[in-house]
Write a structure and sequence with these properties.
The complex is a heterodimer of chains A (269) and B (169). Chain A is of the alpha+beta class. Chain A has two domains: 73 residues, 2-Layer Sandwich (Phosphorylase Kinase, domain 1); 140 residues, 3 helical TM bundles of succinate and fumarate reductases (Up-down Bundle), CATH 1.20.1300.20. In chain A, β5 and β6 form a beta hairpin. In chain A, α4 packs antiparallel against α7, α6 packs across α8 and α8 packs antiparallel against α10. Chain A is globular and about 55 Å long. Chain B is α+β, with helices and mostly antiparallel strands and 169 residues long. Chain B has one domain: Ubiquitin Conjugating Enzyme. Helices cover 32% and strands 17% of the residues of chain B. Chain B has a four-stranded antiparallel sheet with strand order 1-2-3-4, covered by helices on one side. In chain B, a hairpin with a 2-residue loop joins β1 and β2. The termini of chain B are far apart. Classes of the chains: A alpha+beta (269), B alpha+beta (169). Chain B: This is UBC core domain-containing protein. Chain B: It comes from Clavelina lepadiformis. Chain B: Belongs to the ubiquitin-conjugating enzyme family.
Chain lengths: 269, 169
């Protein structure tokens, strides 16, 4: 499918070349938003829990490397829940996956809830205007508190499937990430390349929606919330899966599957 | 979604009315519809647009602040980063990825914690410091680069016009 798309894009570009500037801009915008709409129409923000063996169907049978990796994945994990590939997938997978886990296992809840509650004041300390942050915080904390108040699994799932609520939650997770990066800038600055300052990095690569997450986002978010996440990496490198725990040497609560450019939720056997 | 957008727009209106930034007046065109605003921007001191009062319109989407507003100059304007039809071409009004103008990757982008105030302040500094690299108005970019005197004259006429004064004394 990706190949078809890039082929179409090439044709489009030819015809775009002769356009005046502003028409070109609009054509590009229309194209981009139609690609976004296509993704939106074809995947839920958060899918149903699927048997892990379903992943096999996504690759051809003679793709030995991936089929073998999926077999290994099957030994450890029973199910996968997919997220929409809209650039927010890490945050959405993290948000839902972590709260879902805490519905049945409350062990990690108190520390998570405490860090969540304190996050607003930390943003105020960094001089974010409260009127731009408070709606996102209120939505976020009410979803976090609903876990303690006995929200049902279906209700939680619906919250993350409803675009408005779900995206508001993602915005706030991005803010927590940004806040953590800025609060410990001496440490995180070392990971930033391209000559950006840490604040520039936060404003251009963390806070805006639909931008993909990198290691640095995961490190910052998990340490801000005291969360433990294991990511299983499945890509073209190596013969087997690789795993990474955030923070290192922790006992992971949530498991995520990474395939290049995308995160889904995994359920251990 | 519309409810959250409205709540946020009302909060921003309140903020802008209580603490207006220097040289900016902004608010809904009528209080029945918070999604259509007008803003007056004072041309910054020491620039060709000094003392002009420029009328602009802001149109907010129903998912604001997830998406940025669209902004347009109603007053006549001649500037490298404003299209001849008045639309403003500035990175903060675009989400990342939505990038036809090839803004610098370090340029500030739209995010839900940006605000109307931030946009208007950015537009004000754009008036002071045009970026001829991302030329929404090619003629203005050329004149800005090659014939600054002519550009300044043209700006002065627009300033007088924005104040309702005759073009020349």
């Amino acid at each position: 499918m990706d190949n078809d798309r890039s082929h179409d894009n090439l044709k489009e570009q030819d015809y775009l070349k002769d356009m005046p500037n502003h028409e070109f801009d609009e054509a590009v915008n229309t194209m981009q938003s139609s690609i976004q709409d296509e993704i939106a129409a074809s995947t839920d923000l958060l899918g149903d829990k699927l048997d892990i063996s379903m992943l096999k169907n996504e690759y051809s049978a003679d793709d030995v490397q991936y089929q073998k990796k999926i077999q290994n994945l099957e030994k450890r994990y029973s199910h996968v829940r997919k997220t929409r590939g809209d650039g927010n997938c890490f945050f959405r997978a993290f948000g839902f996956g972590y709260l879902e886990h805490m519905l049945s296992d409350k062990k990690d809840y108190p520390i998570f809830q405490e860090n969540a509650s304190n996050s607003f004041q930390k943003l105020m300390d960094l001089k974010y205007p409260s009127f731009t942050v408070e709606d996102f915080f209120e939505n976020f904390i009410s979803v976090v508190n609903s876990v303690k108040e006995g929200v049902s699994h279906t209700e939680l799932l619906n919250t993350f499937r409803e675009e408005g609520m779900s995206n508001y939650f993602v915005v706030y997770l991005r803010l927590i990430t940004s806040c953590q990066l800025q609060s410990d800038s001496d440490f995180y600055q070392n990971f930033i390349d391209g000559g950006k300052t840490l604040v520039e990095f936060c404003k251009t690569e963390v806070e805006p929606m639909y931008l993909e997450s990198d290691h640095i986002h995961i490190i910052a978010l998990t340490s801000a919330l005291g969360a433990c996440v294991r990511v299983a990496y499945m890509d073209r490198g190596g013969d087997d899966l690789s795993f990474h725990d955030f923070p290192e040497d922790s006992q992971p609560t949530l498991h995520l599957l990474y395939r290049p450019g995308h995160y889904d939720v995994l359920y251990p056997r | 979604m519309v409810g959250s957008a409205l709540k946020r727009l009302m909060a921003e209106y309140k903020q802008l009315s209580l603490n207006p930034p220097e040289g900016i007046v902004a608010g809904p065109v009528n209080e029945e519809n918070f999604f259509e605003w007008e803003a007056l921007i004072l041309g910054p001191e020491g620039t060709p647009f000094e003392s002009g009062v420029f009328r602009t319109s802001l149109h907010f989407p129903t998912d604001y602040p997830m998406s940025p507003p669209k902004m347009k100059f109603i007053s006549d304007i001649f500037h490298p980063n404003i299209y001849p039809d008045g639309r403003v071409c500035i990175s903060i009004l675009h989400s990342p990825g939505d990038d036809p103008m090839g803004y610098e990757t370090s340029a500030e982008r739209w995010s839900p914690v940006q605000s109307i105030e931030k946009i208007l302040l950015s537009v004000m500094s754009m008036l002071a410091e045009p970026n001829p690299e991302s030329g929404a108005n090619v003629d203005a970019s050329k004149m800005w680069r090659d014939d600054r005197e002519q550009f300044n004259k043209r700006a002065e006429v627009l300033v007088r016009q924005s104040l309702g004064l005759p073009e020349q004394l």
